[in-house]
Amino acid sequence: MIRCKVCGTINDASVVFCGGCGNFLPDTGEPYDPDAEKAKVAAEKAEADRVAAEKAAAEKAAAAKAAADKAAAEKAEDDRVAAEQAAERAAAEKAEAERIAAEKAATEKAAAEKAAAAKAEADRLAAEQAAAAKAAAEQAAAEHAEADRLAAEKAAAEQAAAEQAEADRQAAEKAAAEKAATEQAEAERVAADKKAVEKAEAAKASAAQSNAAAIAAEQAAAEEAEDQRAAAEKAAAEDAAAKQAAAEKAAADKAAAEQASAERTAADKAAAERAAAEQAAAEQAKAEAEAAAQAAADKAAAEKAAAEKAVAEQAAADKAAADKAAADAAAAEQAERDRLAAEEAEEERVAAERAAAQLAAIEAAEQERLAQEQADADRLAAEQEEAEQAAAEKAEADRQAAAQAKVGQSARELAAAEAAERAAVAKAYADQQAAEEAAAEKAEADRIAAEQAAAEQAAAEQAAAEAEAQRQARIEARRKEKEAERAAAQKAALVAYRATLRAAVAKDRAGEVGATGGAAVTDTPEAPTETPDDGGLGSIAAAATDDDEIAVPGVSKPKPPPEPAVEQMRICPNCGTANRADRKFCMKCGHPMPEGEVVPPVICTNCGTPNSSTRRFCMKCGSSLVDAPPPDPDASPWWKRS
């Protein structure tokens, strides 16, 4: 049955539009169970009875509390009168004490005012002295600030000179940092993909756990139903024994037998109501578990969407970097990424549709099973009640007939009638027991079928998880392959660029030698040489010389930095920045400077970059520093060399 939520009309399960208001029942309808409504009404009645009993108890307790409050109020009034009397006595004593204290305070106040006047005069003199001292201190501070300003300007000039010397090295470090950031972003994207997969698996495990809990609840309900059935059988046996004893006893036991029958009927009714309430509670718990599983699935989907968004953003960043290095390689990589994204989206869509279909099938099967179990339980309860009522009516009729026909019947006829009655009762009990056993066997078969369906669902989820893992492995393999291809392309492009640059520099130098009549061109800044018009090759050589990211062997060394104000310099072992000898921390990276004597740096024979004495390779061009000659103690400082 389906009940319309708009007008409340009850419709058949096959009806699509409401017969009362014409609304579309799949949208405005809700399931309606008459037995559940009856159970609900009975539960509401029981709740009303309980509330009435609680109300009567509350009224009784309120009457008792009112009497206690009245007694307490009378006692409180007596205490108040006594307290007022005590308060009046205390107020009189307090007023006398306050008068004495006021006189004493007036005397002390006069003395305090006199002392305050003397203190104010002393404070005025001290303030005048402090003002004079403050003026002198401000003048001294102004002179000290001027000296600090001059020193700061001098230090700023020195720092600007040192920072100018480090411009080339900073550019190289920036390029390395960008490369490291790209690699870090790629690693974070891979970690995000892995995390999304783990969350999805956790959500699936949570759903499986919820299904297991629902199965356990159903099993508990079945066991409780079995206990109730055993209790009912025991009660039926006891009732049959009572009936047999009542038949053998005198007619005076009729009232006791009727009262026992009424109590048994009430107990059966209460047991049926309790079973209905437990069934409703189990259904509600299952609905909550399904809602929790759905919420977990929605959360996993949202996290997966966020991970896919992060992957897309990272892919865009990778695409931009690849376009800067090699446009053709970036285009090919983007095409492959789009294809992988399309495959992934298609696989996710298929997996989502498959999961939705499985979930819908499971829910439909579960609802059908619950409906069948409820129908079977209702049918068995009705049959049992009818059988018990018929047996009771027949027993009562037989008893009355036997009582009426006792006069004139022989002992043999009476014994035969009693035997027939006992046989009828035994047959009815046997039929009832057979029906209950058949119902229990059917319930067990349904439970086994549900467990098999749950096992099949778990196997399907496991297969889907394995397929997802294989898909992620394929995507990871393709990504690594593309990264290797991109790295190879970048390396090849770098090698070709360096070869072209070296050829341009060699051609530029050959042109310079021809223009000067074979004279060698030096790199000293004191003797600059005119560069002939060679079609732009000279500018290429200059760009190669000033390039911060590529150092080409054979190219002239960079221009020396301006001469610092001090003669001794310390090289930072972390970033290679030249610092004054008296500095304890690097002015660029903050790394602690080495203590002791000033150790001259190792000059790279390839690009001329000064390096810390502890380095084995140049921090700019990567050339080996093992074969670099040691510094000449008699030579001029390295920053003065040309």
Description:
This protein is mostly helical and 642 residues long. It has helices at 25-28, 34-165, 167-248, 254-325, 327-404, 411-515, 537-546, and strands at 2-4, 10-11, 29-31, 569-571, 578-580, 602-603, 610-611. The protein has a three-stranded antiparallel β-sheet. It has a two-stranded antiparallel sheet with strand order 4-5. Helix 5 (327-404) runs antiparallel to helix 6. The longest helix is centred in the N-terminal third of the chain and has 132 residues, at 34-165. Mean pLDDT is 78; it is low at 519-557 and 563-567.
| Broad structural category | mainly alpha
Q: What is the overall number of helices? A: 7
Distance between the termini: 101 Å
Cα Rg? 50 Å
What gross morphology would you assign? flat
Largest sheet: 3 strands, antiparallel
Spans of 5+ residues with little confidence (pLDDT < 50)?
519-557, 563-567
Number of strands: 7
Query: Quick check: average pLDDT?
Result: 78
**Helix and strand sequence:** EEHEHHHHHHEEEE
Strand content: under 5%
Helix content: over 70%
Strand order, sheet with most strands: 2-1-3
